[in-house]
Amino acid sequence: MGTIISKIEFYLPESKLTNDYLSNEFGRWDADKIELKLGIKERHMAAANETAGDLAYYAAEKVLKGYDRNKIDMLILCTQSPDYFLPSTSCILQDRLGLRTNIGAFDFNLGCSGYIYGLAMAKSFINSGLANNVLLITAETYTKHIHPKDLANRTIFGDAATATILEKSEEEHIFEFDLGTDGKGKNNLIVTNGCLRSVYDPKAENKITDAGDVYTDNNLYMNGPEIFNFTIEAVPIVVEQCLNKNKLTLEEIDYVIFHQANKYMIEYLRKKLHIPKEKFYSNMLYTGNTVSNTIPIAYADTLVNGLIVKGNKVLLCGFGVGYSWGAVIVEV
Amino acid sequence: MKKNEFVNQLAEYCEFETPELTLDTPLKSIAGFDSLAIMSIIAFIDENFNMKLTALQLQKITDFNSIILLIGEDKFEND
Hints:
Largest sheet of chain B: none
Strand content of chain B: under 5%
Shape of chain A: globular
CATH architecture of chain B: Orthogonal Bundle
CATH architecture of the largest domain in chain A: 3-Layer(aba) Sandwich
Order of helices and strands of chain B: HHHH
Number of strands of chain A: 15
Distance between the termini of chain A: 16 Å
CATH class of the largest domain in chain A: Alpha Beta
Structural class of chain A: alpha+beta
Number of domains of chain A: 2
CATH class of chain B: Mainly Alpha
CATH superfamily of chain B: ACP-like
Number of domains of chain B: 1
Radius of gyration of chain B: 11 Å
Strand content of chain A: 25-35%
Strand order of the largest sheet of chain A: 1-7-6-4-5
Number of helices of chain B: 4
Number of helices of chain A: 9
Oligomer: heterodimer
Helix content of chain A: 25-40%
Helix content of chain B: 40-55%
CATH topology of the largest domain in chain A: Peroxisomal Thiolase, Chain A, domain 1
Mean pLDDT of chain B: 88
C-alpha cells in the first residue's frame, strides 16, 4: 500500500503587478533585464481584503470540483500568512469548504520547503492508517509583508494558493524523503515584527539596503546573497541524498522540479547538478516566486502540458526560509 | 587563473557593459553592477574557486582587487 497524488489545482489572485508597472514606479530599473535574468514578467497579488485563507478556499474548491468532499479525512494547510494568530486557518477552511467535522485539520508554518513537508505528512498519515484522503493546501500572501518601496522583493514574490488531494493507493507513489533544517539562517529571510517575540511597531524606522530598497522590521527582509549561498550549498547535497535514499540516479529521473525561487538561481543549480535542460522545470514568468506554491503549481503545469505522464519519476526539491529544505521523488 | 583573466572572465560572466576594466576599476562605476551582479559574483567564485563569499564580505568589495584578496592571492598565477 502507499500514497498517490490524485488531483492538483492552483489559484492565482486576479490583481497583477507587471514589470512595466514597477519600472514606471521606480524608474531605476530595466524591465527586460529583469525578465531575462529573473524569469519574471508579472506576479499576482492578493487584494487588500483577500487573505491566504481566501486563496486557499478558491484553490480547494477547484480541486474538490467533481470530487466527493465527504471522502476528505485530513486537511493540512501550509502558510506563513495565516488569517489569525488563532484559530488555525485550516479549521476555518474545514467549515467553509463544508468538509466533515470528524476529520483532522491543522496549519503548519513553512515557506519554500513547505510542499515537500506537506507531502511527507500526508504520506505518513495515509500509510499509518490515520487518513485515507488528505487535502494538502499551500497558500501564501507574502506581498502583504513587503514594504511598498522594496523593489527587489516586490519584483520576486507573488501570491497564490494550491490544493492537492493525496489518496491511499495499491503501490507507493511518494518515495523516500530527505529533509533538512538550519535555524542559523533565520535572520536572512524574516518578518521580524508582528508576532510575540517582537510585536508590530507602527513607528518602526525605515531601513535601506545597499541596493536602495526600503523596509522596516514590520516587513519582509531577505538577504539575497546569503540565501543564494545557502541554496548552492544545501540543494546539491539534499538532491544527492534523496537519490541515494531511493537508490536512483539522476538519469533514472524523468523530470526535476525545484522551488521556483528565481530563474537565475535555479538555472545555476541546474548547471551545478548537471541536470539536462529538457527535464528541468523553469517557469515563473507569470507568477513570480510564490513560496510554498511554486512546486505544486509547476507539478500541475507539467501535468497539463504533458511534460510528465503517468509512471514518470519526478524529483521535487524545496528550499528557503528557516533555513528549511527537503526533497522527494514521486511517481506520477 | 591570472588576475587579468579573472577581471575579463568575471566581467563577461556578470555581463558588465563598461569596456576596458582593470583590477582597480571601482565596481560602483561599472554599468551593470547591481544586486544581480552580486549573485553572479557569488556563482562565479563558487564555480571557479569552490568557495562562498558571505554577504558581509561582499558588502566590502570595492574593485576586482578586493575580490581577489577575499579569494586569496595564492589562488592566482603571476601575470
